[in-house]
Amino acid sequence: MRRFLFLFLGVALLGAVPAVNKAHASPQGEDDARRQAEADAEKKKKAKDKEWNVGQAPLPSVKNAGPCPYVKVLYDAARYMELKDGKETSSAVGWTGEIQNVRSACQYKSGDPIHVQTSIAFALGRGPQAQGSSKDYRYWVAVTTRNSAVLNKQYFDLVGEFQPGQDRINVVDRLQDIVIPRANPTVSGASFEVLIGFDVSPEMAEFNRLGKRFRVSTPAVAQAETSAPGER
User: Fold this and answer.
1) Which region among 41-45, 69-73, 165-169, 219-223 has the lowest average model confidence (pLDDT)?
2) How many CA atoms lie within 13 A of 92 on its CB side?
């Protein structure tokens, strides 16, 4: 998402150049600027992947019988936010978590089951109401038919270990083999979805659904704001 946002901003900035400058700009110059913007965006993306270390573990080099299942994070469960007494203030925040990125790969051929692996990047936080130096987070992975019934759902525990004075950490969890049986060789991975989310309370789900989140406006002040759903 950041890559496309970066490119959009680049186009917007180019559009802000006075018309007289655009009249003198050569097509070659515009192409060079576009290529540079794309290169910069790709460089930022690679730097982010390196920071998170969410590269895919190699699967056997076998041509798949079809496309892979769609792997995505459920918006209502993408973030974990503990609020003491339900108060939506920065001083009431306990343990927090956010699923920042998901990478996936798959393998299947003939009538074999589909084997999916994922790398899930989490950003975990420790607020003023958090007690102790570690937190056991729980998240789930569900396999569904496309936009339909849940076929299987499993829960996983993720431990966040915070050093003294540390309030944010990044953790990557890898699931090496999610197996999805197929009724026959004509069923492709496109028939399935793999959904990922935190094990959240109904109140947390509603908080996420409304697009609320804490944004720091100054070094000392943070408040709950509402942003359009999908702006994560």
Assistant:
1) 219-223
2) 12
